[in-house]
Design brief:
475 residues, Rossmann fold, four-stranded antiparallel sheet, binds iron/sulfur cluster, alpha/beta
């Protein structure tokens, strides 16, 4: 279950994804409707467009700094609460798309990974297609403490998650579609299994499976998945596509893909958990760009003004200083509300806890020391580039040492090399940007309460959509 939030405004950063910021496509005073594209990528850039999830007037376009330090232009829209949507975009009925067209729809809908760094989904799909992957993996694990937004997405919209994954699997030419989920998540497992049973006849060339994982943190990161499923330790810069013939996508991203493919809904809202040891646990469906303060106002149990408000999960997230001007972005799956527990900083006592908890079998204290002494080569030899920035070592350290920041930023340099391999396949040149549809919006389930309700809802039903995609059509 989730609550729906209708914010008084949205602040839409032009950079919520991995890549180059989009460029504002509106000006102050413009009237914007739900689903309207308000930011477009510059021609040829590795980027995604940005859409509005509310209707109202543009009141400001200026640079803002996000908690992660990114300085980006942002478009602020004041909500007129009318939820007027663009009627030029309609749910598809009886559609048939080629793989290239399907990926193009996903690109134009502004979809990026919702569970991590916000890698443009279309670029990742294109790379998977180029690599001819066998396995299309859907990460339904959501192992971060307290976060349940992905699980709610599965519980509420299992058909959309499964259809999105199946369609994308077919678009990249995979032969297996595998859902990865914790063994404890019985309700979600059942929901996925039911949905798979409903649609599998439409995807006869796809083999479906659900793989169960132990409940622990971290779990879904692609390098851990490569090790758990294929017994492969990926080298720095090595992709799971090449090494394991597999690609991993987050389940909420798959839901967003199906909304775009079936109902022409762009990425303009998402489910966010507002939770932590200082909050009972909420899930809210919000337009992207909703200020964090408006989420907190709706979480009635948050009373203690001295709690930490964290953009992201409590292990790796960043403290929010100004909730009024900090928006939910496309990758915000959780706002954590946690009690302040400052651990006094002391020298390392060599307790070994950081090594014990590291999922990549590193010795964080040793690496930290090496990096402090400028011994970068030695740190690399010690495996520092394998760090997946899970935050566990800092969390357990009784000496209050922030191991993660130093190690993860060193490892991040290697990660950039790996992500940059997407650039070769970004396909920005495939279709001129003039062809970008002005917006995507429809009447699918996630947004039914945000719309003005004039559409025939039966058109949005997955049952009414003709499948499949023509997976073999040449680009
Ligand atoms: S957990 Fe902290 S105190 Fe213990 S070995 Fe690691 S760095 Fe040292
Ligand atoms: S953040 Fe710490 S525990 Fe997590 S992978 Fe990196 S070194 Fe290991």
């Amino acid at each position: 279950m989730f609550e729906r939030i209708y914010p008084s405004k949205v602040i839409l950063p032009m950079k919520m994804h991995y890549g180059v910021p989009a460029v504002p496509a509106v000006k102050v005073g413009d009237y914007v409707r739900m689903g309207q594209c308000v930011g477009v990528p510059e021609k040829g850039s590795f980027s995604v467009p940005v859409h509005s999830g509310i209707s109202g007037k543009v009141t400001d376009i200026s640079e803002i700094r996000l908690p992660n330090g990114i300085l980006t232009p942002a478009v602020t829209i004041k909500n007129d609460m009318k939820r007027t949507r663009l009627d030029s975009v309609r749910p598809r009925s009886g559609f048939k798309l080629s793989a290239t067209e399907a990926i193009g729809v996903i690109r134009d809908a502004g979809i990026c990974g919702m569970g991590g760094e916000g890698i443009p989904t279309a670029a990742k799909l294109r790379r998977a297609r180029t690599e001819v992957v066998r396995d299309f993996l859907v990460n339904c694990l959501q192992s971060e403490p307290y976060s349940t937004s992905d699980l709610v997405a599965i519980t509420e919209y299992p058909d959309y998650v499964v259809l999105g994954a199946s369609a994308c699997a077919r678009a990249v030419g995979a032969s297996r579609c595998i859902f990865l989920i914790s063994e404890n998540r019985r309700e979600q497992r059942k929901a996925l299994a039911n949905s798979i049973a409903k649609i599998k006849d439409d995807f006869k060339d796809l083999e479906f499976d659900i793989k169960l994982f132990r409940e622990r943190f971290p779990q879904g990161y692609y390098r851990l998945v490569a090790r758990a499923l294929y017994g492969k330790n990926l080298a720095v810069g090595e992709t799971i596509e090449k090494a394991c013939s597999a690609v991993v996508f987050n389940c909420s991203t798959m839901l967003a893909c199906w909304e775009a493919l079936s109902d022409n809904i762009p990425m303009m809202s998402r489910i966010v958990s507002v939770t932590g040891d200082a909050s009972g646990g909420h899930n809210m469906l919000v337009p992207i760009g909703t200020p964090v303060s408006e989420l907190l106002t709706n979480a009635q149990d948050i009373k203690n003004g001295s709690d930490r408000i964290v953009w992201g999960n409590c292990l790796t997230g960043i403290d929010i200083k100004d909730p009024d001007n900090t928006p939910v972005v496309k990758t915000t799956s959780v706002i954590s509300v946690v009690r302040r527990q400052e651990v006094p900083r002391t020298p390392c006592i060599h307790c070994g806890l950081c090594s014990e908890c590291c999922p990549m079998n590193l010795s964080p204290n040793t690496i930290f020391e090496m990096l402090n002494q400028g011994l970068r080569q030695k740190a690399a030899e010690e495996g520092a580039r394998d760090c997946i920035a899970c935050g566990s070592c800092s969390y357990v350290c009784p000496a209050g040492i922030n191991l993660t920041t130093a190690i993860a930023s060193f490892a991040g340099e290697g990660r950039i090399i790996e992500i940059n391999s997407l650039l070769d396949n970004s396909g920005a040149e495939e279709r001129p940007l003039d062809d970008l549809k002005p917006a995507y919006v429809g009447e699918a389930s996630l947004l039914e309460d945000y719309s003005d309700g004039e559409e025939d809802k039966s058109k949005s039903s997955p049952d009414s959509i003709t499948l499949p995609f023509e997976k073999d059509k040449e680009v």
